Amino acid sequence: MSDRDRSGEPASAPSLELSDSQRAAIARLARDEVIIPPPIELAREAYLRTDAIERMHALGDPERFWADKANQLDWIEPFDKVLEFEAPNHRWFVGGKLNASVNCIDRHVYSDRRNKAAIIWVGEDGEEHTYTYNRLYREVNRFGNALRRMGVKRGDRVILYMPLVPEGIVTMLACARIGAIHSVVYAGMGTAALKSRIEDCAAKVIVCSDWTMRRGRQLPLKPTVDEAVRDLTFVEHVVVHRRGSRPGDAPVQFDSEREHDFYDVQAAREIHCEPEAMDSEDPLFILYTSGTTGKPKGVVHVTGGYLTGVHYLARAFYQIGERDIYWSTSDIGWIVGHSFIVYGPLSIGATVFCREGVPDYPSPDVTWELCERFGVNIMFTAPTAVRMWMSHGGDVPSKYDLSRLRLIACAGEPLNPEAHLWAQKYLAGQSKGFVVDNWWQTEVAAPVLGTLPTYEARPGKVGKPMPGVVADVVDANGHPLPDGHGGLLVLRRPLPYMLRTVWGDAARYEKYWEQVPGCYSAGDIAVRDRDGYFAVLGRSDDVLNVAGHRIGTADVEGSLLRHASVAESAVIGLPDALKGERIKAFVVLKPGVTAGPGLVSSLKDHVRQDLGPIAQPSDIELRPSLPKTRSGKIVRRYLKAVEMGEDPGDLSTLAD
Question: pLDDT at residue 8 above 50?
């Protein structure tokens, strides 16, 4: 990407330059294509056995199509209009009222699924808990009442800083029940990142765990919260989930009057919490994602459209049914965790398997031992995880009975053909199952492109648009490109499960629709083949994708600039065999600062403490200066081209 304005999302008419690696990827996909036919049994039992009919319905009468999907939910009041659209604004299922927690819990409690396992949770240390739908109903209602007693009402914001534990899911659903807007912050973010999110949404309540477990170590979370809220007087309550305690334990004495014990506030006897009737367009949650500025971007998803999309695509794409044991290796801190750990599978009545911790600890075979023991038959994971398993060899999963694992879906970053083929052989091979790719993003909260189980898989290509999706590849001016040419990925019609705004920043939301007027610009480079399969080649903006996590280059650069020794910084992403991308930083020191032996480690630790371990650069290069244009803008593409051994292109604007 050429030198560009770093002040916000892409400008309305950017220049579009494909990197050498993207051009090479397009040529390689055309030259080395491998086709994997869909397994006959899986295709026969697919939710959409005739997706062509579904697609015709969606294209021919999109409003009726989405009305049919919305009517699979339980509505408190029916909607009277499917869509109002005047770009960039769109409203779905107008006039309808519903509640997300009712759709995820109540309708199963009042059915024969009442005593069915909703959540099976396993900790990294082997601790296990099972929540039936009936138990989940009771826990959610009790915590919903607790929040109401604290003064939380419809529209208030509640921040969660918790790992993947059942109490986190309970908190999300309790917020949904009373109409509060939850915002989960990944429990690996540093103090500055957490504080900026609390401030941006003006959260009334923080719910946190006191620690998380990772690779056998307890990592404290409460001190991060303490530091983040120290001078934030608008935060009225901090509820602490003490991991070592259980319901009924004596309450602990906290240092601050605004702090409470999770189980203590939940202990009241009243079980039923009256659900709030939410307008279809009322916000359900805010989820922060990295943009090209240092300011966090609060993506707002609304109740009716979001729930319609994740319920439909949990069935139609991931093939999740109420009899399935489904495992997503993601976390509730990311959109995958919201859509396909919590709201999608639970709205169907499936059993969701959850595990805290990394998928190769305490041993490389822990994932497959759990799949065998619990009978997991559908898995959603990230390409980074597949590449990690691949590094341990195919003999590790081969030791276990994976004959029930019929579908493995990958998303979050490009799934390279080598990893796809390895997973098809060693992970899906026993069951004659299928590995499928799919693409979506925080802003569009369910699959947009993907390989349905009735399609051929083409490793390196994501798949085709989902029913109801009208996707295209265009040049920088919005003109459609021929098949085989790389360009900007856009959506020509709104979807119910798209973001409605950016919290407190409508202008920032409008930029999604301004780059190509009348279209939603996804911010990715893509190419489409003559059969309608798309390959997504990477970002067109300054957002890195590290192990499936979006990290703004400006966030990392800003963190480095907050270090006392740093005068200037620039950050780029480089290919990484395991993570997809890794972070390299270039730093100019302040005058008089000596590059001592511990300085680079100090800089890395500073970013880790500030933004979390995901954002820590893998490499930091100290330089006397950074390449700049005559107007003073840092030319990051030059730094990346040098690192990649590529032609940096036109350097006529460089100052020297």
Answer: no
